[in-house]
Amino acid sequence: MAELNRIISHLYWLGIYGPFIGHTTMFMWPIGDRELFIDLAQMIAGARVTFAFFVPGGVRNDIPDEFPDKALKVCNYYEKRLKEYEKIFFYNPLVLKRTQGVGVLKREDAIDLGVTGPNLRASGVKSDVRKDEPYSHYDEMDFDIPVYEEGDCWARCMVRLNEIYQSMNIIRQAIKKMPSGPVKNAKRGVIKGIEGEAFARTEAARGTMSYYIISDGKPTPYRLKLVTPSFRFLPLMKHLLVNHHVADIPAIYWSLDYWPVEADK
Length: 265
Prior knowledge:
The radius of gyration is 20 Å and the shape is globular. It contains eleven helices and five strands, in the order H-H-E-E-H-H-H-H-H-H-E-E-E-H-H-H. The chain is mostly helical. Helix 1 (2-20) packs antiparallel against helix 2 (25-45), helix 1 packs antiparallel against helix 8 and helix 3 packs antiparallel against helix 8. The chain has helices at residues 2-20, 25-45, 67-90, 93-99, 107-112, 117-121, 129-132, 153-176, 237-240, 249-255, 260-263; strands spanning 54-55, 58-59, 195-204, 207-216, 223-227. The protein has a single domain, classed as Cytochrome-c3 Hydrogenase, chain B (Orthogonal Bundle). The strands form two sheets. The chain has a three-stranded antiparallel β-sheet with strand order 3-4-5. Strands 1-2 form a two-stranded antiparallel sheet.
């Protein structure tokens, strides 16, 4: 589910980035193909956007019997389809002119400014919570972390493109290794809080999601703090826009995949 959501998020980003730099075909293609992955997520969770699939003690429900075959067919189709994306968009001379050398985020600046996710990896930093602090069986999966050194708009595009390939790779492995048996703890019930605090991170589509929780022993948290990837991205603009043309602003802005709804917590 996490990797389906990563693909869905990246295709939404691409569907907006295309028109931002004057490539309208790259709105129609990814938004249309995105529906295939949304349909897969809906098969599992019963919802198209807000899945609420993971619950304490397991997952909400088992996957349908027809899901594995359909998921593999979608991945096989889309892996070939992405090659067409590369020809018409990612290596299109006009796209390269709009993105290469534009909005460069240097490695040291990316680290100092607390950037995470694809934007950090596009600046040459190989950092991914799925590898650095494995969770949810990611340590059992064989996958690569796409990293580019250029730090420009094009590098940020390429990281996300290659992450889609890797997500499909993970989905195939997860289906193959899917165990049988119950999907959640039958004894789970009302959560009883214990006094204490905890911190955890996950690798969301746009970067690291950080969670800090404090409990005073009651069923609801005393304090819950979320730090989302987009919260850190908008301040980058004042560094990336220097010495660029006004026409470069859309290319730089959306290459970060900044999502206001995510930033406004």
